[in-house]
Amino acid sequence: MELLIPEFGLVIFQSIAFLLLMFLLSKFAWKPVLAAIKEREQNIDEALNKAELAKQEMARLTAQNEELMKEARAERDLILKEAKTLKDNIVNEAKTQAHNEGAKLIEKAKIEIENQKKAALAELKSQVSTLSLDIAERVLRNQLQDKAKQEDLVANLLKDVELN
Question: Looking at residue 164, what is its pLDDT?
C-alpha cells in the first residue's frame, strides 16, 4: 500500500524534483523549443505569403501573357489583312496591265492586218492590171493581125469618140 499512499517526505521530494525539472525545462528547453516553434511558424507564414505572392505574380504573368497573345494575334491578323490587300492590289494591277498590253497588241495586230490587207490589195490590183494589159494586148494582136479587122476597130473607136 505504500504505492497508493506515499509518505510525506516522498511527496515533498517528488514535488521538489518536479518543480526543479519544470524550472530547468522552462529555463533551458521550453524557451528554445518555443522559439523554434515560433520561428517555424514564422517561416511557414513567410512561405505561405511568398506562395501567395508567387501565385499572384503567376496570375499577373498569365494575364500579361494572354494580353501579349491577343496583341500578337491582332497584329498577325492585321499583317495578314495587309498582305491580302497588297496581293489583291498587285493582282488587280497585273490584270489591268495585262489588259492594257493585250489591247495594245490587238491594236498593233489590227494595224498590221490592215497594212497587209492594203499591201495585198495593191499587189492584187497590180497583178490584175498587168493581167488586163496582157489580155488586152493579146486580144488586140489577134484582132489587129488582119488589115480589115484593124480598120473596123478604128471605125468603131471613132464612133465611140463622136458620141461622147
Answer: 42
CA-wise closest residue to 96 among 46, 104, 75: 104
Per-residue model confidence (pLDDT) at position 108: 95
pLDDT at 94: 94
Answer for the pair 144, 150: CB distance below 8 angstroms, yes or no.
yes
Give the chain's residues under pLDDT 70. Answer: 1-3, 143-144, 161-164
**Environment class of residue 57 by beta-carbon count within 10 Å: exposed (0-12), middle (13-18) or buried (19+)?**
exposed
pLDDT tens-digit map of 75-87: 999 999 999 999 9
Which DSSP string do the residues of the chain spell out, in sequence order?
-TTTS--HHHHHHHHHHHHHHHHHIIIIIIHHHHHHHHHHHHHHHHHHHHHHHHHHHHHHHHHHHHHHHHHHHHHHHHHHHHHHHHHHHHHHHHHHHHHHHHHHHHHHHHHHHHHHHHHHHHHHHHHHHHHHHHHHHHHHHHHHSSHHHHHHHHHHHHHHHHH-
Please give the Cα distance from 20 to 28 (Å, whole number).
12
For residue 127 the three cell numbers come to 497583178
